[in-house]
């Protein structure tokens, strides 16, 4: 239903959004790697004043098993205030929750009781295949033309993957987004610069190269994704491709500057075939073209092969495996998850070409197995993965699972799920909130975190 | 005095469009903010007004051209049906349509955007009752093409002029003095008001 006034969680600019009230709830995707019981969206109490702080206070189970919930998003967000395509009276109310493996899409209502969300609609894979020709649904963003959902494969599980549109009120599948996809074949993440009418997409691989785990031959042959694609957001036309080169594999999470007047952003590259390092690249406007520059390189750490999983034994080193990054609302701090070594690193990226490390914590990690003050049994498995920042930039939440089939390749003893929170000092510096540790219930592993009212990777803005 | 009210309603509808953030002033402010230039806000006003004027003029021209071939009663019914159709479209689809123009638009793109916004809102149709009453004022029973044309042109000028004035005042004032945070509470649902107004106008025209 349309409202009389804009949703109170919509902000014209990131500057205003940074003054939003503190979140009290987090929604977290949780999946069963065994695919025996339904996946769920869990509701975590993140209000320090609450008696159930740091506990799961609600949960909605999916109607099927084996969806592999992964990323998800809101039906509407601050981009609804954009002047060229306004939708100011749509509510931010529904979570759009895709199954990465099942290609099923769930619409979940958080309104009547935010702690007890309800599924109101399930869009079956056959409908998406028929109307948009896609499968393996990955990431969602609310934007100018409704809800954008990307998919890693076509309906037959092959390339190309791409994006399709959903109506943000009826949730009807509107069809494929691309009108001219140029050379783009692989898909992973997507986001945009609303102020520059530009869509950016990144690359992973086709389902046959990840649904049973990463394939070493594909990786060593540099056949996984290594490119960025730049598109005209409104003509829906491919404009430019940038190849990171044979050395770089798995170009994943895209974090454009929130300030719509700025034309730069950050993308993480999981691994270098040369030395197992991970890297962060800045894309930027260079004349009439887009360009990229490597701005951070995180080296692999030498390690005793005895402590390493088979896939890393031969290298005698732990790869940092940067699998997620997130940018604070003021575009000042970039958080980098090193799922392999167990580090969460904070960089000051005020100068996007010269990041400075301002904080680092370690938890879990393939070799380090670092613990948390509130963890009961010492050594922790998994490492920092999906990371989310509060709108005011003062709190950072993250979980520890990457993907069902890949988790055991790097953590062969299994991953016990957890979710933690960092407090951010003014001017930089991060530390664990010693009172926040969610020891995830066995049988599920947590993945993406979304914060009540929006967070730093949910909303885009049209005004500086 | 009988011909005063139609002119006032034409101007009032223009002012309403000018007031609606979705019809132009907010876009002008945003373009100004992106280029950090008050001059861009000024420059944006012309394409917004021109796009709007072309939309309402086209609709009026088509309606009057057809209308002059019909007897006034049939014409009134046809206009009512069109307006109710626009109200129905607006209620069902409203703001949800293909986005063609982005934040890097040039002035021609801005005029096209304004044209599309006005057309999809049914802005021109809403002027039909006022123009109809003006055209019929002098000729008790039939629409004459010769006199309708200047009246319609004047109607477009009054309507678009009122819209331009309100758009200009709002965009320049907001750009210069206000923080856009006001949008969070002040942006009321103009779409719903507009749909109700279209529906009411259609019904009044029908039962008149």
Overview of the molecule:
The complex is a heterodimer of chains A (464) and B (208). Chain A is mainly beta and 464 residues long. Chain A has a single domain, classed as 7 Propeller (Methylamine Dehydrogenase, Chain H). Chain A is globular, with a radius of gyration of 20 Å. In chain B, helix 4 runs antiparallel to helix 10. Chain B has one domain. Chain B is built from ten helices and no strands. With 208 residues, chain B is mostly helical. In chain B, 78% of the residues lie in helices and 0% in strands. The interface between A and B is medium-sized, with 37 and 30 residues.
Gist of the model:
By secondary structure, chain A is mostly beta strands. Chain A has helices at 14-17, 125-132, 216-220, 310-313, 407-410, and strands at 25-31, 40-45, 56-61, 73-74, 94-98, 105-109, 118-123, 134-143, 146-154, 162-166, 173-176, 190-193, 198-201, 227-232, 237-243, 248-256, 264-272, 278-286, 289-298, 301-302, 317-318, 322-327, 333-338, 343-348, 356-362, 387-389, 395-399, 418-424, 430-439, 445-451.
Question: What would the keywords be for this entry?
Answer:
heterodimer, A: 464 residues, Methylamine Dehydrogenase, Chain H, four-stranded antiparallel β-sheet, B: 208 residues, mainly alpha, 10 helices
Topology:
The complex is a heterodimer of chains A (464) and B (208).
Chain A: H1 14-17, E1 25-31, E2 40-45, E3 56-61, E4 73-74, E5 94-98, E6 105-109, E7 118-123, H2 125-132, E8 134-143, E9 146-154, E10 162-166, E11 173-176, E12 190-193, E13 198-201, H3 216-220, E14 227-232, E15 237-243, E16 248-256, E17 264-272, E18 278-286, E19 289-298, E20 301-302, H4 310-313, E21 317-318, E22 322-327, E23 333-338, E24 343-348, E25 356-362, E26 387-389, E27 395-399, H5 407-410, E28 418-424, E29 430-439, E30 445-451
Antiparallel strand pairs in A: 1-2, 1-30, 2-3, 4-5, 5-6, 6-7, 8-9, 9-10, 10-11, 12-13, 13-14, 14-15, 16-17, 17-18, 18-19, 20-21, 22-23, 23-24, 24-25, 26-27, 27-28, 28-29
Chain B: H1 4-19, H2 25-35, H3 38-67, H4 72-92, H5 107-121, H6 123-126, H7 128-138, H8 145-177, H9 183-186, H10 190-207
Helix pairs in contact in B: 1-7, 1-8, 2-3, 2-8, 3-5, 3-8, 4-10
């Amino acid at each position: 239903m349309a409202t009389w006034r804009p949703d109170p969680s919509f902000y014209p600019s990131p500057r205003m959004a940074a003054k939003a009230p503190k979140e009290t709830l987090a929604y977290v995707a949780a999946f069963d790697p065994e695919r025996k019981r339904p996946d769920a969206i869990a509701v975590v109490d993140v209000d320090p004043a609450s008696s159930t702080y740091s506990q799961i206070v609600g949960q909605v189970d999916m109607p099927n098993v084996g969806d592999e919930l992964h990323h998800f998003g809101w039906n509407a967000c601050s981009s609804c205030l954009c002047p060229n395509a306004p939708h100011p009276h749509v509510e931010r109310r529904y979570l759009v929750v895709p199954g990465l493996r099942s290609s099923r899409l769930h619409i979940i209502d958080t309104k009547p009781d935010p702690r007890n969300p309800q599924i109101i609609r399930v869009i079956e894979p056959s409908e998406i295949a028929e109307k948009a020709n896609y499968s393996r649904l990955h990431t969602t963003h609310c934007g100018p033309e409704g809800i954008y959902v990307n998919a890693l494969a076509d309906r037959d599980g092959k390339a190309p993957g791409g994006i399709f549109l959903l109506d943000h009120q009826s949730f009807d599948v509107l069809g494929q987004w691309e009108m001219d996809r140029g050379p783009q074949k692989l898909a992973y993440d997507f986001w945009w610069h609303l102020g520059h009418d530009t869509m950016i997409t990144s690359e992973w691989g086709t389902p046959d190269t990840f649904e049973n785990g990463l394939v070493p031959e594909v990786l060593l042959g540099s056949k996984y994704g290594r490119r960025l694609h730049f598109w005209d957001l409104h003509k829906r036309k491919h404009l430019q491709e940038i190849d990171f080169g044979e050395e770089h594999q798995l170009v994943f999470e895209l974090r454009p500057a929130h300030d719509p007047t700025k034309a730069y952003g950050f993308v993480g590259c999981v691994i270098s075939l040369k030395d197992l390092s991970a890297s962060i690249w800045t894309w930027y406007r260079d004349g009439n073209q887009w360009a990229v520059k490597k701005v951070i390189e995180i080296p692999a750490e030498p390690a005793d092969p005895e402590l390493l999983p088979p896939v890393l034994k031969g290298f005698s080193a732990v790869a940092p495996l940067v699998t997620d990054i997130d940018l604070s609302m003021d575009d000042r701090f970039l958080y980098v998850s090193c799922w392999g070594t167990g580090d969460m690193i904070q960089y000051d990226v005020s100068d996007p070409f010269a990041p400075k490390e301002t904080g680092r914590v370690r938890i879990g990690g393939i070799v380090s197995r670092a613990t948390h003050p509130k963890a009961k049994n010492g050594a922790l498995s998994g490492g920092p993965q999906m990371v989310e920042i509060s709108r005011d930039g003062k709190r950072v939440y993250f979980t520890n699972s990457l993907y069902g089939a890949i988790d055991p390749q790097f953590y062969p003893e299994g991953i016990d799920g957890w979710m933690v929170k960092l407090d951010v000092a003014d001017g930089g510096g991060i530390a664990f909130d010693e009172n926040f540790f969610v020891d995830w219930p066995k049988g599920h592993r947590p993945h993406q975190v979304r914060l009540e009212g929006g967070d730093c990777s949910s909303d885009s803005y049209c005004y500086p | 005095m009988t011909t005063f009210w139609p002119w006032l309603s034409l101007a009032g509808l223009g002012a309403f469009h000018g007031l609606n953030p979705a019809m132009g002033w907010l876009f002008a402010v945003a373009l100004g903010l992106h280029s950090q230039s008050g001059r861009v806000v000024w420059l944006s006003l012309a394409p917004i007004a021109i796009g709007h004027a072309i939309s309402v003029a086209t609709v009026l021209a088509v309606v009057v051209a057809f209308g002059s071939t019909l007897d006034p009663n049939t014409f009134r019914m046809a206009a009512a049906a069109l307006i109710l159709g626009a109200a129905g479209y607006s209620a069902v689809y409203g703001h949800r349509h293909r986005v063609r123009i982005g934040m890097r638009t040039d002035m021609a793109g801005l005029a096209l955007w304004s044209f599309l916004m006005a057309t999809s809102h049914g802005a021109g149709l809403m002027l039909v009752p006022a123009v109809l009453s003006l055209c019929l004022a002098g000729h008790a029973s039939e629409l004459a093409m010769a006199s309708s044309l200047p009246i319609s042109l004047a109607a477009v000028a009054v309507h678009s002029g009122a819209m331009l004035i309100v758009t200009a005042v709002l965009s320049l004032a907001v750009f210069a003095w206000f923080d856009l945070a006001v949008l969070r509470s002040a942006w009321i649902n103009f779409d719903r008001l507009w749909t109700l107004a279209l529906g009411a106008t259609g019904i009044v025209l029908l039962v008149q």
